[in-house]
Amino acid sequence: MSVQSFTIAIPQVTLDDLRERLARTRWPDSAEGASWNSGTSLAYMKELVHYWQHQYDWRSQEAALNQFAQFKTEVDGQGLHFLYERGKGPNPIPLLLIHGWPDSFYRFHKIIPMLTDPERFGGDPQISFDVIVPSLPGFGFSDRPGEGGMKSIRSADLLARLMHEGLGYKQFAAAGGDIGSRVARLMALAHPEWLIGIHLTDIGFPREVAFPPEVPNPSPVEQQFLGSVQGWFLQEGAYAMLQTTKPQTISYPLNDSPVGLAAWIVEKFRAWSDCDGDIEKSYTKDELLTNSMLYWVMETISSSARLYREDGLQTAPQLKAGQYIEVPAGVATFPKDLTVPPRELGERFLRVKHWTKMPRGGHFAALEEPELLAEDLRAFFRPFRVVSGQ
After folding, report:
1. Half-sphere exposure of 165 toward its Cβ, with a 13 Å CA cutoff?
2. Is the pLDDT of residue 210 over 60?
3. What is the pLDDT of residue 315?
4. CA–CA separation, 208 vs 186, rounded Å?
5. What is the mean pLDDT of the chain?
C-alpha cells in the first residue's frame, strides 16, 4: 500500500469563483422576528457572508492545516486522505479519530497536539498517542466513491486496513462521534483482534439499522431516552430524512450556492452545541467557514449526504439482538449533544469500561471542548498497551 505526502493547495480559480458567487447571493425573505426559529437566521447569515467576503482568509487557514503531516493512499480502490501526527511520549498508542457529518477532519485540529504532546499542555508524557485523522470516503480530500461505496461498514473496513496494513499497526485504538461513532463500532465488531478499545461521544440512535439492536423491556430511564430520541427526530431530523431519501435532489442547490451550503451546515453547529443560542460562544466565524469550505472546495456535499441513503438501505444488520461488542469501550456524553443516552442502554451492546458525563459541551466535542475530550481519552486508554507493530 503506497502512502504519499499530501499538501492542501486549492486552485485560485476556485476561490475566485467562490467570491463571485458570494457577491451574487440572492437572499430570501424571512418572517419578521423569526430569528433561528424556522431555520438558519437570515440576519446571522448576512453577517457571516459579509465576513466570508471581506475578512475570511482561506490561504491562512490552508497554511495552518498544512502544518499537520498529511498523506494520501489507496485502499481497495478507494483514495483516502489522512493526517498523521506522531506522539512524543515513550510508547505512543496509535489512535484513529473518525469524524462525522456535517463536520470533517477539521473537527480534530485542536485536540491533535493535546494527544500527541500532552506534556506541552500540562499532561503526563507517559500517555501520548500517534494520531491518525482520515477524511471519510466522500468527505474532504478523500475520493468520492461510486454507488454503494459510502456505507459506514465499508468505511470501517477501509480505515481498519489503513491502520493495520497501510501504517503497520498490529493493534490500535479508535474514537469518534456521530458517523465516526458508528464506524468505530462497526470496526470493533469486524476486527476485534486489531482494536484495543473504542472511545465514543455517542452510542448511536435506536433507529440505526445496526446499532443498537431493538431494546426489549426498556427500563424507565431507557424508555425516557427512547422518547427523547423520537422527539428529537420530529424537531430536528428533517435533514436526515432528506439525505436518507432524496440526497441527489438537495445536492443541486447546496453544491451550487455557497451560502446555501453554509446555511445547511451552520444551523446544525448552532443547534447541536452548548452555546445557548449564540453560535459564536462555541465557534469562531473562521472555524465555521473553514469547515464549510472543505465541503465547498471539494464539492463533497452530495457524496456526504449519499452516505445517509446508503446506510439507510443497508439490509443486513451487523449487530442483532443479543450480540455484543467485546472490544472495551469508553463513552463520554456531553449535555447538549443531540440526545444523551443512559449508561444502561450502552451496556446492552457495548463492553463499557468507562463512562463520563461531561459538565458542558455538545455534539462536536473535539472542536468545542477539546481539553475535556483529550483528558477523557487519556483516562480511558491509560491502562491499555498495544501489541508492538511497525
Report:
1. 13
2. no
3. 52
4. 12
5. 93
Dihedral sign computed on CA atoms, order 84, 87, 93, 97: negative
Q: What is the DSSP letter of 163?
A: I
Please answer whether residues 360 and 335 qualify as being in contact, where contact means their C-beta atoms are separated by less than 8 angstroms. Answer: yes
- Looking at residue 76, the DSSP 8-state letter turns out to be T
Residue 131 β-bridge partners: 85, 95
128: which 3 cell numbers?
A: 501520548
d(CA 296, CA 4): 24
Residues 61 and 124 sit within 8 Å (Cβ to Cβ): no
Place of cell 448552532: 270
Q: One-letter amino acid identity for 279?
A: I
CA angle 123, 126, 128 (to 5 degrees): 75
pLDDT at 137: 98
Closest CA relative to residue 186, chosen from 169, 201, 203, 170: 203
Q: Which residues are catalytic?
A: 178, 308, 363
Distance in angstroms (rounded) separating the CA atoms of residues 275 and 368: 10
For cell 512524543, name the residue.
88
Whole-angstrom CA distances from 154 to 275, 330, 352 are: 34, 23, 25
| pLDDT per residue as tens digits for the range 265-293 | 999 999 999 999 999 999 999 999 999 99
Q: % helix / strand / coil in the chain, to the nearest 5? A: 45, 15, 40
CATH architecture under which domain 3-24+36-381 falls:
3-Layer(aba) Sandwich (3.40)
Buried-exposed string 311-338: b where 16+ CB fall within 10 A, e elsewhere: bbeeeeebbeeeeebebbbbbbbbebbb
Instruction: Please identify which residue in the block is written with the cell numbers 463520563.
Output: 356
Nearby residues of 27 by Cβ (< 8 Å), 6 or more positions away: 42, 46
- In DSSP terms, which residues pair with 172 in a beta bridge? 195
Cell numbers that stand for 69 in this block: 503531516
Distance CA 62, CA 14 (A): 14
Confidence class for position 308, pLDDT limits 50, 70, 90:
very high
To which H or E segment does residue 242 belong? helix 238-245
pLDDT, position 245: 95
User: Model confidence over 357-366: pLDDT tens digits?
Assistant: 999 999 999 9
Long-range contacts of 268-271, Cβ-Cβ distance < 8 Å, separation of 24 or more = 268/102, 268/239, 269/102, 269/364, 270/36, 271/236
Q: What is the number of other CB atoms lying within 10 angstroms of the CB of residue 9?
A: 9
